[in-house]
Amino acid sequence: MSVIVVANPKGGVGKSTLSTNLAGYFAAAGEWVALADLDKQHSAHAWLDLRPATLPAIETWEVNPDTPAKPPKGLEHAVVDTPAGLHGNRLNIALDLADKVIVPLQPSLFDILATQEFLERLAKEKAVRKGAIEIGVVGMRVDARTRSAEQLHRFVEGLKLPVLGFLRDTQNYVQLAAHGLTLWDVAKSRVEKDLEQWQPIVEWTNGAGKKD
């Protein structure tokens, strides 16, 4: 089973967008997937409540930070959404569960500075240094051809972390989320550009290490 944690202590960077759509990808591929939500507001689980029962199932995985439990036996994938301000016990739980961590990051100077300490801490984690946890960064709401995208690349390369891809700023995510949907739940022609941008991200997650 693979556990993919989506994390960034900076708020408003698109963690829930990444988490829900990644879970939607696994579900559409016919795999058994659960979505966990470490945020006290439980926005990812609220999104699951909106999801039509006729769509490929995404299970709810309840993770209590005080008494963390392993996901259901036999589960193929778990995606963990995390809150803004992630630190302390919740961060330790997330890293203990993770095979991979995706850090969504908007390529503005302020967002990069706000995330720098977190990325540096991840890079120093023993499990990361030993290769037990892989870290990848996704540029959010950005055109890959812009100077700001180049700035993000330079910053992340300095930390020796891969940039998995860039997701454009589009209302598709907002409109789909309002109905409990993901990019993989609608006609491909409607979201073709977005699916193309997701390709390197899902390829990276499919290579996730397996935990017992």
From TrEMBL:
Q: Residue limits of the CobQ/CobB/MinD/ParA nucleotide binding domain?
A: 4-182
Q: State the SUPFAM superfamilies in the record.
A: P-loop containing nucleoside triphosphate hydrolases (SSF52540)
- Cross-referenced InterPro entries, in alphabetical order? CobQ/CobB/MinD/ParA_Nub-bd_dom, DNA_Partitioning_ATPase, P-loop_NTPase
Report any Pfam family annotated for this entry. Answer: CbiA
Q: What superkingdom heads the lineage?
A: Bacteria
- What is this protein called in UniProt? Cobyrinic acid a,c-diamide synthase
Protein's organism: Paraburkholderia monticola
